[in-house]
Design brief:
CATH topology: Glutamine Phosphoribosylpyrophosphate, subunit 1, domain 1
Distance between the termini: 36 Å
Helix content: 25-40%
Low-confidence stretches: 1-50
Bound molecules: glutamic acid
Mean pLDDT: 89
Shape: globular
CATH superfamily: Gamma-glutamyltranspeptidase, small (S) subunit
Radius of gyration: 23 Å
CATH class: Alpha Beta
Structural class: alpha+beta
Amino acid sequence: MRLSIAVLLGLLLANCSEPADTAAVPDNTAPAVVQTAVENAVDNIVVENTVATGDWDLGFMAAVANPYATDAAATMLARGGHAVDAAIAAHAVLGLVEPESSGLGGGGFMVLYEAESGEVRFLDGRETAPMAASIDMFMNDGEPMPYLQAWQSGRAVGVPGAVALYKLAHERYGQLDWAEIFQPAINLAREGFLVTEKMANYLPGIANIARLDENPGSAEYFYPNGEPLQAGDLLRNPEYAETLQAIVEQGPDAFYTGEIAEAIVASAQAEPNPGSLTMEDMAAYEAIERPAVCGPWRELTICSATPPSSGAMQIMVANLYDHLLPENASQEQQVQAFVDAQRLAYADRDYYFGDPDRVDVPVEQLLDPTYIESRASNPVAPDAMPEHGDPGMVLGEAAAAVFAPDSTREPAGTTHYSIVDSYGNAVSVTMTVESVFGSNRWAAGFLLNNEMTDFSRDYDPALPEAANAVRPGARPRSSMSPSILLDADGELYMVTGSPGGNSIPAYTAKTILATEDWGLSVQEAVDFPNIIARGQTVRVETGREPGQALADYLNEAGYDVQESEGENSGLHVIRVHPDHLEGAADPRREGTVMTTAPL
Ligand code: GLU
């Protein structure tokens, strides 16, 4: 398996390293270095040469889920681009080569470290519900629509946020031309790329449960002549190239109004279970800058995505963990404290988090050290169902909020990447189409999201509304937790995050605890078994060492352990050391790390 991935990646890279965009390379670049990096990317190399671009002496690094996309990011960085330029270039390529995970038809979140000011910013490109969406739009005769049906429905499609996020980020930070950053993706779409195993492996199976092989556009693209694409097939997507070209020439208006928007609306309004998305919904979309959520942990500061996302859980889990950790803890006890911290934090997240523009999410109270201490002093019995706490009561204020219980389900279709540029800026970006291949609906060369199923779909008029209820124009709650950690001096320290639906907070928190408390390198932390403790069960990835031993220990301690052979994390992490950058790509996906050596 490993060998075949390596061989495939070798092929990919051979194709990718064709300098198709050489003509667009400005004079101040060092394409030869990037070329070297591409040739070696399979092994997560450090390039020996350096690139004279920024003013930061640690060089640059990009950790991304697909080598074509890592290459696009590194190319932009080598040309002196800002991390944001690299992020957009990488994502435009990911939308082409990893369409099962994210793309132009989806949305996402970018957390950004500004080297000059030392500030951490958060840009929200989450999809929005159409204005005609209703709280009961996923209900049929008092029962929630079965997930498979909801997933494939037009109702699941929200206004995509990716392109508006690109524009907002580029306007604020971009150093390269808007046109230049889309060139790698346009070239690959026109000239072709090699289908990866990850994408190809999904195709036969998904045809049995979803409409990817039936919907107009997606059927011909993914199943030419009725047969699923195979790993290693050369695939072109001229329609995607045209769409990107229109975005290059006309900006986001090309996407949110006009022909591309019309294609999106028509696809969302198609049978079965048409949605209500309109041209007005498309035109009204805006990416939003919100304050990042930051909180102290030990001598570090953890910053992440505020609601509608769940990044605050990183601060909750780390601080709960410290209260729950016995002195001189063994590895098993460390993992048990991690499990108990997650159970408490997930219960609060599930209950309180929703769109902050629609409900009052008590993030500050949930992060209050007094509340965290009180919460940790009442851990949940291993065999009990964790309940949410009430920070309002603990802090002597009014009850935090009253919501119906959450029933959100989040399967996997997402990607995460981390980038540090040669000026010392960093971005932590998680982008999604929600489920695998999103709604499986196609428009203008890409797939549309099914992000509306990230709302709590269940609705009972006799209960108060869930925090994450469907509301017109609202953003569904997300688990995505792109995070940036700062050291005691407020300097950039770590960039981390993962896909994985509801398991994202658990996957991401593992990288923080494992590097800081369990003595693991970044790659070892990424490789370490994933452990997810949400609700009554604890899932332990026994397919990786020492997963089985940890599962046995937790079982013995009375937890309801579910052993899982593999987990769908896609952790791409960078840690900043005083004299070098350390990066890791998740072996569970196909990503790579590219970097320059320290000057
Ligand atoms: N749509 C999910 C969210 O926003 C992510 C799904 C995934 O990670 O695959 O949290």
